[in-house]
Write a structure and sequence with these properties.
Blueprint (H helix, E strand, L loop, with lengths): L2 E6 L6 E6 L2 E7 H4 L10 H24 L6 H19 L5 H17 L5 H13 L7 H10 L4 H9 L5 H16 L4 H14 L4 H10 L3
Antiparallel strand pairs: 1-2, 2-3
Helix pairs in contact: 2-3, 2-4, 3-4, 5-6, 5-7, 6-7, 8-9, 8-10, 9-10
């Protein structure tokens, strides 16, 4: 296989299009393409190695962009990278197999975790704190379910809930105080039912709801 042309990409100046035997074959980041030249002969193994490195760099760039908006769990990042790689999987399948691509995802997640960009323990603490202190504070049950969906281990979830400032009961009272004005014009029976249903939907237990109803300043 002979490199017949190396062309900067129009839509991304940081990438180079590599043409082999007169046809476009793959794109590379400039840092990877800098050692290549027109007329150079590449083996199948050399091409596969270049493409493998390019996939890793693309995944890292995607991951860093994804975590720049807010903290993420490892599972969230992994799922996002699976989505991203599906966008150009067909382009790379000539050189790499699916196993290579999914291994690249694992390596990317490991890379971020080793350097402290991903930490499920810290993520769980931040998520729990944010949800517990929101305008409508969430219950332990709701927070736990949200973190489980995000792939966080139960032991990390348990520790995050222990570190919260307000107890589950205190959050139930806070939430009851905020929503009670919407119901107070109803009959006592209707108002109580509305409040109980509202708190129940947000994951608070019956004992917590009952105590909140009896103790908040409504």
């Amino acid at each position: 296989m002979i490199i017949t042309s190396l062309q900067p990409q129009v839509k991304n100046v940081n990438r180079i299009s590599v043409y082999i035997d007169g046809e476009f074959s793959f794109g590379l980041f400039v840092d990877l393409a800098i050692s290549l030249k027109k007329g150079q002969i590449l083996s199948q193994e050399q091409v596969a190695d270049l493409v493998r490195q390019d996939v890793s760099l693309r995944l890292r760039a995607s991951a860093f962009n994804y975590i720049s908006f807010r903290p993420r769990s490892k599972k969230e990042v992994s799922n996002y990278l699976r989505f991203r790689i599906s966008k150009y999987e067909e382009h790379y399948q000539r050189w790499l197999g699916k196993e290579d691509l999914f291994n690249a995802i694992e390596r990317t997640v490991d890379y971020l975790e080793e350097r402290g960009y991903l930490n499920d323990q810290e993520f769980a603490k931040q998520w729990a704190s944010f949800r517990a202190q929101s305008r409508q504070p969430k219950s332990d049950y709701t927070i736990k379910q949200e973190l489980r969906i995000k792939g966080v281990r139960d032991e990390d979830i348990a520790q995050a809930l222990l570190d919260l400032g307000k107890t589950n009961q205190q959050r139930a009272v806070t939430l009851a105080q905020k929503v009670w004005p919407k119901y107070k014009k109803l009959s006592p029976v209707q108002a109580k039912k509305k409040l109980f249903d509202f708190l129940r939907r947000r994951g608070f237990g019956w004992d917590e709801i009952k105590e909140a109803y009896e103790n908040f300043d409504g």
